Sequence to fold (217 residues):
Amino acid sequence: MEMTETQVIKAAVIEDIREIREGLTTLINFTDGFRCTGSYRSVEEALTRLNDDVPDVLLSDIGLPGMSGIEGIRIIKARFPLMQILMLTVYDDDDRIFDALCAGASGYLLKRTPPAKLLENIREAMSGGAPVSPEVASRVIKFFREFHTPDRTDYDLTPHETRLLKLLTEGYNYATAAAKLGVSYNTIKFHVRHIFEKLQVHTKSEAVVKAMRDRLV
Fold:
């Protein structure tokens, strides 16, 4: 989406720590060209109130009471497909980064991002970019550089394993995948273990990358 000089960016915040939530709200409201449409303590609260004044960009934490920020991405994107969702979190591990991006996040920022840079990242997302913190970008690049695909690409995945792998690439975790497929959590763990063995990987992030690179789903 191209920005015009007169367009005001509407942003909302999902953050359970009151001081951070109020700080972000103040930053947005007291910056020319921005307006905060709402600040929420949880995904559940946001889902009940986002319709009141739909934002262009949503800043969301990951570790939240109730539904996690990553679980919320799919629901919010399905309801508001044009909304840009930026994760704003303390977590910088591979699994959460890839889960968030696969679920539909437009960017992944760490909470230590300076205020001016955060506003720049919001503008970047509105212009079609995918802002990520430098530390996150370096982890993604390192992950792809170190990830080697074996010559064999016929992995003999069953239709059920392929369907489960597709859910993992879409950001589902074991619990939400179990609910989606109507099976138990332990059943998912059982099938994931076999998927890992067939793909010759050790983590969900590696499985997701291999699935996308080899077009397995």
